[in-house]
């Protein structure tokens, strides 16, 4: 194992337990992101890796070597550290800024100059910048130099602690792309602290979720999205927040499309193919005569088993995931995301097919929710009930439109009656 952290504990003076039984094995070339709320122990854990802090107990090994037995210079040759928002040093040229750590590590001047050239090319800036001073560069260019500096000493492991957290979104994305790209090219191992789930999802090969000094989940971004270990992780992912921002929509029935493409199981494959073609779908839902949902068939199965004499009932797949029209949308979103379904059929209490929830419609709802939030923020309008009624997108079901205008009317009506009620009370 390349970097191995075993039973790490850190208790600060005053018995403050900051990290508890932390175990992690990191392969060479991984991009590990630590994520968690403030105070969860991310910085403490990271700082133990290069001995800026000593653990209370447990061991850290690099390629089998216990770091507590390495001398500090030897360790720093292998591990680089980039703290939150340290800017470039203003009185040093770009060259000297880039080669700051190589100089501390006593590289020769030739080697340093060579490295400065390599690094500035790597971050796609012209060599002529090397003799300039930071103030002569734009903010974004300075940030690129910061990344060049982080990688300049050619250490095997790069530690970055919330390095991008104070940047504007455009610069941040640019640097994320740059870092990810350089990391993949160089094969270096990154341990990157962030409190931004989007950033972690974008950069990490594996995400380590921390809470109160403990590791909550270690998984790939995909696994984290599909199978968050608990509510805390789900909250970090943030979809609850997004969905709850639109309180007026709560059940599946309110957003489903009421025109699922379905056929009875006694229909022939010829009829099924024609319907799929006409409606431009690659999956058909299959029902019985009373419209109870029975299963589905996809175009591959249909083609593979095609015979003009067969019926849908001969070939359809009974293993189908569906939701009740009264189910809470939040749970449906969870399941669609977790299982990767493109859409999910909706049934009533009798198991009859009444609609379909598409991934596209859910995405619209999430965007609507964001849009409402923005609007409230920028106008300072606190009349949420009325402002919340943005026009629904065409994709989201008609029931949503009906609900919106109805609520608007109700809102207006309520205001009118409030006055007359007051009058009545006064009487
Ligand atoms: P994070 O980086 O996730 O925000 P930290 O590792 O900085 O968390 O801190 C973890 C916990 O340890 C927090 O409760 C913090 O208040 C505490 N802590 C951090 N540094 C010290 C210190 N030098 N002395 C005492 N407690 C500390
Ligand atoms: Mg921190």
From TrEMBL:
Organism listed in the record: Furfurilactobacillus rossiae DSM 15814
Gene Ontology MF terms: ABC-type quaternary ammonium compound transporting activity; ATP binding; ATP hydrolysis activity
Low complexity bias locations: 393-410
Compartments, record wording: Cell inner membrane
Quaternary structure and partners: The complex is probably composed of two ATP-binding proteins, two transmembrane proteins and a solute-binding protein.
Catalytic activity: a quaternary ammonium(out) + ATP + H2O = a quaternary ammonium(in) + ADP + phosphate + H(+)
Domain CBS, first and last residues per copy: 256-315, 316-372
Domain ABC transporter: 3-237
Protein name: Quaternary amine transport ATP-binding protein
């Amino acid at each position: 194992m390349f970097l191995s952290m075993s039973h790490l504990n850190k208790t600060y003076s005053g018995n403050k337990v900051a990290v508890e039984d932390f175990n992690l094995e990191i392969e060479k070339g991984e991009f590990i992101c630590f994520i968690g709320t403030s105070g969860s122990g991310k910085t403490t854990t990271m700082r133990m890796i290069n001995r800026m802090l000593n653990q209370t107990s447990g061991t850290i090994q690099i390629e089998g070597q216990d770091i507590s037995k390495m001398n500090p210079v030897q360790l720093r040759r292998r591990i680089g550290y980039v703290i939150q928002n340290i800017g470039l040093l203003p009185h040093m040229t770009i060259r000297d800024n880039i080669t700051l750590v190589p100089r501390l590590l006593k590289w020769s001047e030739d080697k340093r100059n060579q490295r400065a050239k390599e690094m500035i090319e790597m971050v796609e800036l012209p060599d002529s910048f090397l003799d300039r001073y930071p103030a002569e560069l734009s903010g974004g260019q300075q940030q690129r130099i910061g990344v060049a500096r982080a990688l300049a000493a050619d250490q095997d492991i790069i530690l970055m602690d919330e390095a991008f957290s104070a940047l504007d979104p455009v610069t941040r994305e640019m640097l994320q792309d740059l870092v990810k790209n350089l990391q993949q090219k160089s094969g270096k191992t990154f341990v990157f602290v962030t409190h931004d789930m989007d950033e972690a999802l974008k950069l990490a090969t594996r995400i380590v979720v921390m809470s109160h000094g403990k590791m909550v989940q270690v998984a790939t971004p995909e696994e984290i999205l599909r199978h968050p270990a608990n509510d805390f992780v789900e909250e970090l992912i943030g979809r609850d927040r997004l969905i709850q921002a639109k309180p007026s929509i709560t059940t599946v029935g309110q957003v489903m499309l009421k025109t699922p493409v379905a056929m009875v199981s006694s229909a022939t494959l010829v009829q099924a193919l024609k319907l799929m073609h006409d409606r431009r779908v690659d999956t058909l839902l299959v029902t019985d005569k009373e419209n109870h949902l029975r299963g589905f068939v996809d175009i591959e199965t249909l083609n593979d088993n095609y015979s003009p004499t067969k019926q849908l009932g001969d070939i359809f797949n009974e293993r189908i995931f569906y939701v009740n029209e009264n189910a809470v949308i939040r749970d449906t979103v969870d399941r669609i995301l977790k299982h990767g379904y493109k859409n999910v059929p909706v049934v009533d209490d009798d198991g009859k097919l009444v609609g379909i929830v598409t991934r596209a419609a859910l995405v619209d709802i999430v965007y609507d929710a964001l849009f409402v939030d923005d609007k409230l923020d920028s106008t300072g309008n606190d009349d949420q009930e009325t402002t919340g009624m943005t026009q629904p997108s065409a994709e989201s079901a008609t029931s949503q439109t009906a609900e919106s205008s109805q609520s608007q009317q109700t809102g207006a009506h309520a205001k009118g009656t409030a006055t007359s009620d007051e009058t009545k009370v006064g009487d």
